[in-house]
Amino acid sequence: MEILIISGMSGAGKSRAAICLEDSGYYIVDNLPAEMMVKFAEFCAAAGGRYDRLASVYDVRAGEPFERLTGAVEELRRQGLRCRLLFLEADTKTIINRYKETRRSHPLCGDGASIEEAVARERAMLAPVRAQADLVLDTSAFSTAKLRSTLLTLLGGGSGGGLHVTVLSFGFKNGLPPEADLVLDVRFLPNPYYVPELKRLTGLDVAVRDYVMNAPESHEMLQKLEELTGSYPGVEKAYAIQAGREVRIMVRPEEVSEDSMILLARDIARKLESELEYPGQIKVNVIRETKAVEYAK
User: What is the number of other CB atoms lying within 10 angstroms of the CB of residue 235?
Assistant: First the structure.
């Protein structure tokens, strides 16, 4: 049985970390007092493998001396359980900005202290816990995605840590799926609906799959899309739309400049001209999007 105790500064990302770990197969318990951790671990150990990976969030909300936490960790290890302590922290400026963005109050601001004073007090209170931590992670420069990937690297992905790919068919008359990361317009492929013996079948049937995927257009589309999306540095996403009449390419602004995107569009257009046979023309649309965010305080 594996036990992970998540502690650290308020505003450093403990709740986000708990969500990421829950998606990875951990059973999450939030704000459990130190004395109850030992009893709860005993209960989980007797559950016959149902709770093989347990993560508990512990911070100043517990309202008890932090020596109890270190004592609980020692007791769990004495019982032969694999127990690790993860400590999340961030610099004071980052924590203050996160609280200002969410409009939440720091748990130590109840006596009228400023956020900066509360952060300094909490940092001093948690110093003994940080000293005992197995892993210390500074999340000052972390996005949610970066926090998740770092945790999965340090702790292992578990049963839910892999990449999930969902292939979804839809009708354009109903609008694009809002959760889609990549949309491909494949209306130029042969449609089995107009084949009498296939009309009543679905894409799960082997006959329908073979009819579509064995068509020359399907092989060419898959091959060219892979080449297009994988052969140019700086490309983040690529969409084939308008029945293959437009290729819309999103590039990373930190890797592709405004001048470079013009050259990239020309290079891709020349490549399509030399390697594809198609009637009419294909529009190559390279998009470089930057955002500037500031807050009125």
Answer: 19
pLDDT at 90 over 90: yes
8 A C-beta contact, residue 290 and residue 253: yes
Name the pLDDT band for 138 (thresholds 50, 70, 90): very high
Give the separation between CA 87 and CA 177, rounded to whole angstroms: 39
Whose tokens are 């019982």? That residue is 79
3-state secondary structure of 12: coil
Cα gap 157→12, rounded to integer Å:
21
pLDDT number for residue 243? 47
143 token code pair: 């996005």
* Rounded Cα–Cα distance for residues 39 and 44 (Å): 9
* Helix ranges restricted to H, 113-255: 115-125, 127-132, 144-155, 206-213, 216-230
CB atoms near residue 181 (< 10 Å):
8
Asked whether the predicted pLDDT for residue 279 surpasses 80, the reply is: no
Beta strands at 2-8 and 53-57: parallel, antiparallel or unpaired: parallel
- Residue 167's contacts (CB-CB under 8 Å, 6 or more residues apart) are none
Sign of the dihedral through C-alpha 27, 32, 65, 96: positive
H/E stretch holding 43: helix 34-45
pTM for this entry: 0.55
